[in-house]
Amino acid sequence: MSDDLYQELILDHGMHPRRKGVLEDPSMVEKGFNPLCGDEITLYLKVVDGCIESVRFEGQGCAISMASSSLMAERIEGMQVEDVDRLFHQFHDMLMGEKECDLGKLSAL
Fold first, then answer.
1. Cα torsion at 62, 95, 3, 100 (round to 10°)?
2. N or C: which end of the chain has fewer CB within 10 A?
3. Could you tell me the sign of the dihedral formed by the alpha carbons of 44, 46, 52, 53, in that order?
4. pTM (global) more than 0.90
């Protein structure tokens, strides 16, 4: 991914995050806090029969934090929980430099 495309993607999702807001009646709620920078994210999931039916998030943080939350929510909505778990491990391995893989827009992060 080119630097220009990376910047455009991060700025777009950072300034106009998708799926931002509170999800009514979620199946799961997870909170994350980065003490180094102060970013805070709350993730809401509606899981039905092992499928992530709806995703929303709210919080505050830098453009990269908001963009990554937006990109993640956009990517996992409609996926099976087990597939999201595999995606998480692929993403983690990519960030740690252990494996190269094409994760679409998530590769920008």
1. -160
2. N
3. negative
4. no
